[in-house]
Predict the structure of U three protein 23.
Amino acid sequence: MRQKRAKAYRKLMALYSMSFGFRQPYQVLVDSEMCKDATERKIELLKQLTVILQGDVKPMITQCCIHELYLLGKSQQPAVDLAKTFERRKCNHREVIPGDECLASVVGETNKHRYVVATQSQPLRVKLRAIPAVPIVHVNRSVMVLEPPSDATIQSKEYREEQALHPTGSEKQSLAPSTSAEPPRKKKKGPKGPNPLSVKKKKVETKPPVAKDKGKAKERPVPEAAAGEKRKRDDTADDNETATAQQPADSQPQDELRRKKKRRRKATEPVVVNT
Ligand SMILES: [Zn+2]
């Protein structure tokens, strides 16, 4: 096989493997005519398939296809002998049907079992080109040929690639939390913050007043009814404050002002909690 063709076949089989999950050994459905041609032209079928598919192959023949060879009689015994070395593919056709129809039904609408089809039937090849991802092999003047990918195959490949690029709805949902979780991780990787010891010290300084406030709130829980009253008082306190602010500083000692402010804060606290 010429190097150029070998490269093209290698690329083609890579496409079937990458985009459609073909794996070695490639399962090759061989039709009766191919068996006949191979023996008549003295083509080493298994070896040739291995060369053009560039990997291990498992030739298979369906019950209907081997039956066609039986019908040909003694003259085609070598073809029958060849077919008998292949793995028999059960097609479960109770009554034998023509090989083309049998192979078409085994491949099905989607070729879900990932068969390569080696057939000399032109009509069957046309039919199989409409199904995505069916590698088709035939023998042309003693040369085994792997067909270029069909339009259906290329379209399906492009569609799959498009789908792979865009996440589905469920994938987007699963992506959302992970992306939001990423920034903090990055922050961890970045430069470190201030010395943790210094941060702790600050907390120690600020904690005591907070603890006191909380403790007081627990000691003197304000009933809901009183909240309104206290608010009223709060308003008056506000008035007082504005009034006192206008007065000279000597008449209103600083301590009293502070006390008022404190009281006001306490009065508003329960209201905030209740809402
Ligand atoms: Zn069959």
Notes: Confidence is low (pLDDT under 50) at residues 225-230, 234-247. The CA atoms of residues 17 and 104 lie 22 Å apart. The chain has twelve helices and six strands.
